[in-house]
Write a structure and sequence with these properties.
84% helix; 153 residues; elongated; mainly alpha
Length: 153
């Protein structure tokens, strides 16, 4: 099997990054769209100041996640055919990592908003905390542990 050139490796890495972003992009956009429409629903005027705060955190975080997840496309357009694929791959990875961080905050805040609306505050905080822990374990803990397991072999 022929050895992969640096150019081919960078192209493969960027393609892999874009595939991963496409998976997350759909979820981010659906959450953002839901949050954008929420204030126009009949029940929204009944939210408490605490719930309004959770809503704003979720909305702004989902907006930031959306911006970060789309940014590699704009970066690619700016750097296309300029021989800067290494820079593109590096920044696309950073942007997608930031997007996942904001998506975690948006999802946890959305869970808090909804659970606080339908459950007592303590139960809402507990479920939100559990949601955040599960997301952290799946999105941070597992990948880091898996990376370390790969080194040990």
């Amino acid at each position: 099997m022929a050895r992969e050139t640096e150019k081919k490796r960078l192209e493969r890495n960027f393609t892999d990054e874009l595939r991963e972003l496409r998976v997350a992009q759909t979820g981010v956009q659906i959450l953002f769209a839901f949050l954008l429409t929420l204030p126009f629903t009949a029940g929204f005027p009944r939210v408490t100041p605490f719930q309004r705060g959770a809503y704003l955190v979720a909305l702004v975080s989902a907006g930031a996640a959306t911006a970060l997840i789309i940014a590699p496309v704009a970066l690619h357009a700016a750097l296309f055919r300029r021989g800067r694929k290494s820079e593109l791959v590096r920044y696309a990875h950073r942007l997608s990592s930031g997007a996942l961080g904001f998506l975690l905050i948006a999802m946890a805040s959305a869970v808090l908003l909804i659970t606080d609306f339908v459950l007592p505050r303590g139960a809402a905080l507990l479920l939100t905390g559990l949601t955040a822990v599960v997301l952290l374990l799946l999105w941070v803990g597992l990948p880091l542990a898996r990376r370390e397991w790969g080194r040990a072999r």
